[in-house]
Amino acid sequence: MSTFTDLAKQAGETLSLPWQWIYSQWAHETGGFTSRLMKEDNNLAGITSLSGGYASYTSYEDFTDSYVKLLKLYQETLASNSLEDFAYNLHSEGYYTDEPENYLAGLKFHYPEGEETEVESSTTKNSIWDKIKSQIKSGPFKITETPETGTPKSVVGFDLNSTTNLKTIFIFIIVVMIFVTIISLLKGGNTSNGTDKEL
Fold it and tell me: Which of 61, 94, 137, 176: CA 20 to 30 A from 149?
């Protein structure tokens, strides 16, 4: 039987998230792997069923498969850059209702011993586009949401899940800046030529 660490590593590899974040979440949700929900239903993360109440699983492996499928719906969570981002993004996307500060404290309390808490997600490390998306969403723009999950999907008509659109915006801004610079240089050159003629 796989250990919780092994299962967290499997989930982390599939989701491209640090396994330590997943392990600490499971530990927090189960009160240090002691909850009745964990022991009776093999549910390590408080996952609820569509019919209401908590979901029950035949094994921890079965739970892990379900957990991975669920988290794939949480795009902002998957784009987290730190344990703090992970906690706050889970909250913003509706995973839990507790205060984010309390949840983060729980994650840190149950974090695997001897492991660094400042571990970056492999999908967002050095990713400039995810940082741009974060800045856009936090600014004074109109945000539309996906009806099924309530997660931010687009801003001012641009699909935030499309890297192509973001690159297009960025390239457009660069082109405009270059154009303005060229115009300014040309105007400066014309002014100098006119002065020389007068002299």
Answer: 61
Q: What is the pTM of this model?
A: 0.60
Q: CA 29 to CA 95: how far, in whole Å?
A: 12
Main-chain phi, psi angles of 152, to 5 degrees? -55, 130
Q: Residues 139, 95: one domain? A: no
Domain of residue 84 covers: 4-125
Whole-angstrom Cα Rg for the chain: 24
Q: Which pLDDT tens digit goes with each residue over 39-48?
A: 999 999 999 9
Total tally of structural domains belonging to the chain:
2
Are 113 and 181 within one domain? no
Paired tokens of 116: 């660094």
Instruction: Name residue 143's beta-bridge partners.
Output: 155
From 92, 125, 158, the end of a domain falls on: 125
Reading the block at residue 64, the tokens are 């892990």
Supply the mean pLDDT for the chain.
79
